[in-house]
Amino acid sequence: MRQGFSRATVVTLLTTALVLAPAPWILAWVLRGGQYAFRITTLMLVNATYAVAFNLIFGHTKQLFLCVGALAGSSAYLAVVLERDLGWPALLTTGLGLLFAAGLGGLVSYVSVRRGLGVIFVGIVTLAVSLIFQNLLLGFRRYTNGETGIDTHGLGIGLGDRVVAYYVFVGLLLLALAVYALLMGSPAGMAFRALSGDELAAELAGIDVTRYKVLAAAVGSAVIGLAGALFSDYNGFINPSIYALAQVDIVVLIVLIMGGMRTLLGPVIGAVVFAAIDHVVRPFGQVTVLVYGVFLIVLFVAFREGLVPVLRRAARLPIP
Amino acid sequence: MIPILFDGVVQGLQLALLAVGITMIYGLGGILQLAHGQVAVMAAMVAALLIAAGVNAVLASAAGILAVALFSVAMDWSLLRPAYRYRGEERLLLSLVLTLGLAFLVDGFLTFRYPEIALTLRLRTPSVVVGGITVRTASIAVSVLAAAAFTLLALFLVKTWLGRAVRSLMQNDVGAALCGINADRTRTFIVGLSGLLAGLAGIAQGLFSSVGPEMGSEFTILALIVAVVGGVRSLTGTVTAGLLLGVVNAFASYLVGTYMTLILLLGVALVTILVRPQGLLAYWA
Amino acid sequence: MTSLLQVERLVVAYDDIQVLREVSLEVREGEAVGVIGPNGAGKTTLFKAIAGLLRPRAGHIAWEGIRLDGRPAHDVARRGIVYVPAERELFPQMTVADNLTLGAYAARAGVRSRLARVYELFPRLAARRPQRSETLSGGEQQMLAIGRAVMARPKVLLLDEPSTGLAPRVVAAVYHQLTTLRRDGLTILLAEQQVPLALSFCDRIYVLENGHVVLSGPPQALLNDPALKRAYLGVEVAP
Questions:
Q1: Closest to A107 measured CA to CA, from A260, A210, A231, A1
Q2: Closest residue by Cα to residue A157 from A89, A225, A72
Q3: Average pLDDT for chain A
Q4: Would you call B171 and C91 a contact, using CB atoms and an 8 Å cutoff?
């Protein structure tokens, strides 16, 4: 991976694409339900995409952004409101949403680095951002329709067809993975590796810590924003709870840690396993949140390295 | 104006009661307790369940408070154990995630198992007239409770050996060890005490509104805001911040509504972190 | 004289770096033992290991017959080995009085009389009783650290470079008080950068270099070794 877009990366991405392509149909056959199969595989792709971004932001540059949901949601709401109220074309609004998220994420990162905030305070700051976002949505009901949310049918780039939507999200995930691989293979990637070890040492070695952290945050936030906006298209409606902490951030944490931080496929594998778990737990309603909590605890206590290293050893393959 | 101010002070006392626990745990254990609000709610739930079973309200409340104090001690011994193997930022990060997971766990459990249960305490006389102003007895009760709690806490910290040990650990854990102070045991005690205070705050809230499983996160956030603004290492700062933010909360709610008020409070916390992270009101520089 | 503290073949390492390589040392009741050596020799590491702040990788520390290595610092302190680190580790926002009182946490009987005794020994501290310890000068902080240690009714006082950063007059005062404490029967183990101080104060010294003990014996032994004498006292020996 050190030579940028290496052969291994290309092979990995192609393999991933090949595995993902027929997945919903196979799953539909196994579960005997097409609608549901497409839904959970699409959701899986969205979670994986969020996790790839979070991998850059938290995995590689130790920025505990507990505002993934807020970033995704702000992009989504911005796009939807602009389309609905100003009639702007979907591509433009989606782009704006992406840029807004990237800007917000980059700003939070920049301010945090400049003020020398430790991981914890970044976590608290981003938690506050998440909550401010939620309350803004609820407070400005004239635009956002509060808790009820907004119907997005007819808006967006047209992800009404579940097959089209699925492949769009496959494309999004592959794009996110490609961006990740490119970044990691570039000088930025080396900087990230130095940063995640010892920030002070990296700084003293001449690495512009601010620049690389902000870069990781901005790029990651852009991906999150894009995913968030596209998801609002696909979902048919948006409301504050879709982008809440308990829906997005905790899921992203679980997915990334379970899959394996700082690996290429970690987010994907984590998302697949998480989808399976969710499938089992969802029917029980509120217990879902309980299970998420248990998973978070167990992962951080006993299984912080994640699945990719385990699979590497088991299959004796250098899974990236 | 005056009634709002008075309400604000009472709310402030409650906020301070809630936040002091987080400050103590952070300052002494280097741990961020994100399930703090859930602890407060659990006390209310235990009390509510006991009251529903016919137990006297005062006893039920005391039982609820005691229950969560014990829960907190158990949490310190078990869940937080992995965090104590580390120091500094590692410990904070791990505790943040573990207690976040615990918060979700408790939330999920309570909403799943007891979705309809909530604590509502009613005093026999709803209000009295003091100096021409109608005052809710609940406000008086909570003020008295909170004031008593803070007085006892202050006396404990200043006059008793254990209290001095607590203060010393908050300032220098190495120095405290060299004086023969067992940091682990003291910390477990503080975590239990913090749970007790959270439980008291949860029960107290029951005098004003219905306390149900969904209120956990709100309590945690408020406690965190107050602790951050007052200084996560400063007890006096936290109490002061609680009072101030309570007044701000009361006025803002009256002027701009619930959501904007919360945004305002969050904004204050954000500004504090960016401008003076040790706390706007912290005594120590 | 009974042997109070025995350190046997102590090995302390940070990851792969060995700081103490099989260091052995003994302190007998009533003695003043000094450990001297250059910076980085391992003096502080040795003291931290004895005090329970560091875990040795190998070797024994025995105190009144009981194994101490691996025990936590508060346990060691309660047994009577009281450590005064070079960093002093005071409680910055607490008053002088509070700092001293806390020293007696594990030995509360007779706190008041002991406190009076400490104020007698260190009149400067008595004058600053209600002041926060962070406002004291370097010398006063050192005295406070020693005073706090004395409040613990120690059987052995471990002092890590008590003279560091202090003006000569203050150093003299500190050592004068230490002498008084010795006369009261206190056993002392100290590490010193200023070799002449150690030589004049201690009954026995150990010279630590690179984690090894290269000499142990009465101060005279150092003076009799030309190489060490040159190294530590800078005195050329006539050919």
A1: A210
A2: A89
A3: 90
A4: yes
Does the residue A281 lie in any domain? no
pTM, to two decimals: 0.88
C34 assigned to some structural domain: yes
- Between the ranges A1-10, B227-236, C147-156, C214-223, where is the mean pLDDT highest? C147-156
- C91, B168: Cβ pair inside 8 Å? yes
Query: Does B177 contact C74 at a Cβ distance shorter than 8 Å?
Result: yes
Asked whether residue C109 is domain-assigned, the answer is: no
ipTM of the complex: 0.90
Kindly report the CATH number assigned to the domain that includes residue C81: 3.40.50.300
Residue A309 lies in a domain: no
Range of the domain at A30: 7-244
Instruction: Select the residue from A258, A292, A300 to test the B interface by mutation, using most B Cβ atoms within 10 A.
Output: A300
Which amino acid is residue B275, in one-letter code? Answer: V
B164, B174, B183: residue with CB nearest C102: B164
* Chain A residues with at least one Cβ partner in B under 8 Å: 64, 111, 115, 117-121, 123-125, 127-129, 131-132, 135-136, 138-139, 246, 250, 253, 284-297, 300-301
Please provide the average confidence, as pLDDT, over all residues in chain C: 89
Q: What is the mean pLDDT of chain B?
A: 90
Q: Flag if B180 and C105 touch (Cβ within 8 Å).
A: yes
pLDDT in tens, C199-239: 889 999 999 988 889 888 898 888 888 777 777 776 555 55
Overall domain count for chain C? 1
Domain count for chain A:
1
Mutate to test the interface with B, among A66, A114, A132, A196 (most CBs of B within 10 A): A132
User: B171 and C51: CB-CB below 8 Å?
Assistant: no
pLDDT of residue C238: 54
Q: Which fold has domain B2-275?
A: ABC transporter involved in vitamin B12 uptake, BtuC (1.10.3470)
Asked if B266 and A297 come within 8 Å (Cβ–Cβ), the reply is: no
CA separation for the pair C101, B165 (Å, rounded)? 10
Residues of C in contact with B177 (CB under 8 A): 52-53, 72-74, 77
- C188 φ, ψ (degrees, to nearest 5): -130, 135
Of all helices (H) and strands (E), which one includes residue A238?
strand A237-238
Share of chain B above pLDDT 70, in %: 98
Which of A148-162, B78-92, B214-228, C21-35 comes out lowest in average pLDDT?
A148-162
Stretch C92-96: mean pLDDT: 92
- The sign of the torsion formed by the CA atoms of A277, A279, A280, A283 equals positive
- With b for 16 or more beta-carbon neighbours within 10 A and e for fewer, the B142-171 pattern comes to bbebbeebbeebeeebeeeeeebbbbbbbb
pLDDT band at B284 (very low <50, low <70, confident <90, very high): very low
| Phi, psi dihedrals of residue A141, rounded to the nearest 5° | -65, -15
What would the pLDDT profile of A243-272 be if each residue is shown by its tens digit?
A: 998 899 999 999 999 999 999 999 999 999
**Structural domain that includes position C19:** 3-92+158-233
The amino acid at A207: I
